[in-house]
Design goal:
With 66 residues, the protein is mainly α. It folds into 2 domains: 33 residues, no CATH class; 33 residues, no CATH class. It is 55% helix and 9% strand. Strands 1-2 form a two-stranded antiparallel ribbon. The longest helix has 17 residues.
């Protein structure tokens, strides 16, 4: 989980219980922000894994090569 994903998960878990805001921390510690190159590689692989799981990944690869 990245720094940004941590904060999004934290924000999505916010709930008001008995008039007070509570959150569920997804991790015990907050991840450190990545460097620009590390983040680019991380999200590049994550996006490719997403498209591999889709049926028309072959079409996506052909368009990327062109």
């Amino acid at each position: 989980m990245t720094y940004g994903e941590y904060w999004i998960a934290l924000k999505l878990s916010m709930q008001m219980i008995d008039g007070q805001w509570s959150v569920i921390k997804p991790l015990k510690t907050i991840p450190k922000p990545m460097k620009k190159d590390e983040a680019f590689n991380y999200y590049n692989y994550k996006l490719r894994d997403y498209w591999k799981s889709k049926e028309n990944y072959e079409n996506f690869e052909k368009q990327a090569e062109a």
